[in-house]
Write a structure and sequence with these properties.
The chain is an alpha/beta fold. The chain is built from 16 helices and 20 strands.
Length: 491
């Protein structure tokens, strides 16, 4: 046989080191560039091996994985996708449970590993070139020994495997063992021969391979080249997202949304400041009676008009209207009053490479220009309400110190995921977006931004502070109450 028809993806583990996110989402469903790792590994099997059938081992939060598989059937119409229950006795046992279904060579890939720009087809070449082969495993050369310590190391005799060492303290070489394997049905025979490991009490897959290598002398190494990401922790995941986005970043289009209402004195400065750094500027105007719209058009900015019924609540609706009109992959939202500068935009974009939303925080006193309207009172209210949001969703570990900053960046895809839950019409749209990012288990982080004196300074009184705090509390509490209701329904 010169081709492989069967693939197996292990997508069952609990992923405890990626807490707290894995309490809500299994690691194989973590998304990289809007596709789950599971989806990308199915793509790998199809593109590199022309696999015809894939068995997906499920366990932790299996309902979510099964739902994802149902969706992926439409994306991969030529593939047969089938789920199988884990054994809870380790990876080797999970794979061995498929013995009655697999009677030919197959490829196994771990569901929490992502390979970017890989040449995995070399595993198939190794299989074709070595007729007596019982298995081949993917290896990657790396000078970073800490990566090998997290996986396993390999000792070679030519192109054949001499031994494998799980998580070695002192790796013998620069060969990193990957979670990609090509097995013949001999795997099932040697699984039964391999005793449980003393440390874990289960049969380890590396020890099955090690025994195969010693007895058959036909376990081969296949050195591949790729960007490899082993998603053990949330930092591993953020690193993977960052590296891929950083590689592709120049391809993304950036749109700037500016909600306006009688801002003729400041709008020109804002447009001129940001225009060289974005691909498009969209003005969403709420019935300005001055020259705001004419000035914006004179700089060839797109202008959308929002006609509102109430004179008090319109900013949230303006922002949502803006998102429905922009063409960019990334949206930047900034207030029209000149209180923020484009010099902070590179910071927002850099942090956006491994986040879903990056929002400014105006709590660094050294970055607040003298004369701005952010006095101690509004700073305190924003900090207090930020901590309130943290306390409501403490199990997801958000960190907020400012809930009313009108300068942030967000991926359009991430916005679309929270869009159905956005309802705030007025000026507190920012805190609602922050809360919905947390509720959707997306990454929303704060970074300090400079805050400048506005063209028109608005006096902020104790009464205003109290009213704002009440409104923000109502928004946060209503969202939290909805979570409580949903949890009771699930129970």
């Amino acid at each position: 046989m010169s081709k492989i028809r069967i693939g197996v993806i292990a997508a069952a583990g609990k992923g405890t080191r990626a807490y707290p996110r894995t309490n809500f989402i299994p690691k194989p469903l973590f998304k990289i560039e809007n596709k789950s790792i599971l989806c990308r590994n199915i793509e790998l099997l199809q593109d590199k091996f022309k696999i015809q059938k894939v068995y997906i081992l499920v366990g932790h939060l299996k309902e979510q994985v099964i739902e994802e598989v149902e969706c992926l059937r439409y994306l991969f119409p030529k593939l047969v996708l089938e789920t199988a229950e884990w054994t809870t006795k380790g990876l080797a046992s999970d794979v061995a449970s498929l013995e009655s279904k697999i009677h030919e060579p197959f490829v196994l890939i771990l569901g929490d590993e992502y390979y970017y720009k890989t040449n995995h087809e070399k595993l198939l070449q190794t299989f074709i070139q070595n007729k007596k082969l019982t298995a081949t495993i993917a290896l990657l050369r790396t000078s970073i020994k800490s990566k090998i310590r997290k996986n396993y190391s390999v000792e070679l005799d030519g192109k054949k495997i001499k031994s494998l060492i799980e998580k070695p303290e002192d790796p013998p070489n620069d060969l990193l063992g990957l979670g990609s394997y090509l097995f013949t049905p001999k795997f099932f025979e040697y699984f039964k021969k391999t005793p449980p490991a003393k440390k874990s009490g289960v049969v380890e897959i590396t020890e099955v391979i090690d025994l195969m290598a010693h007895e058959t002398k036909e376990v081969y190494a296949t050195e591949v080249k790729c960007e490899y990401f082993n998603i053990n922790s949330m930092q591993d995941y953020h690193s993977a997202v960052y590296e891929v986005r950083n590689d592709l970043f120049e391809n993304y289009k950036i749109s700037l949304i500016i909600p306006t209402h009688n801002n003729e004195r400041s709008i020109a400065d804002v447009i001129l400041d940001f225009k060289p750094k974005v691909h498009e500027i969209l003005i969403v105007d709420a019935e300005s009676t001055d020259n705001t719209v004419d000035i914006a058009k004179s700089f060839k900015s797109k202008v959308e008009h929002y006609f509102y019924d109430t004179k008090k609540e319109y900013e949230g609706i303006q922002i949502r209207q803006g998102f429905s009109r922009i063409t960019g992959d990334i949206a930047i939202v900034v207030s029209p009053d000149g209180s923020f500068r484009s010099k902070d935009l590179p910071k927002l974009l850099e942090y956006l490479k491994d986040s879903d939303m990056v929002i400014g925080t105006r709590t660094t006193r050294q970055m607040i220009e003298q004369g701005s309207n952010l006095k101690p009172l509004p700073r305190f209210i924003n900090l207090l309400m930020g901590k309130l949001v943290e306390s409501f969703w403490w199990n997801q570990e958000p960190r907020f110190t400012d809930v009313d900053c009108k300068y942030f960046a967000i991926w359009k895809d991430s916005y679309n995921r929270i869009k159905p839950e956005l309802n705030v019409k007025g000026k507190f749209f920012t805190v609602e977006m922050m809360i919905e990012m947390v509720r959707a288990h997306l990454r929303c982080i704060e970074i300090p931004v400079s805050y400048y004196k506005q063209v028109e300074t608005i006096e902020y009184k104790w009464k205003d502070a109290f009213t704002d705090a009440i409104e923000i509390f109502k928004i946060a509490f209503s969202k939290k109450r909805e979570d409580w209701r949903n949890n009771k329904t699930e129970e």
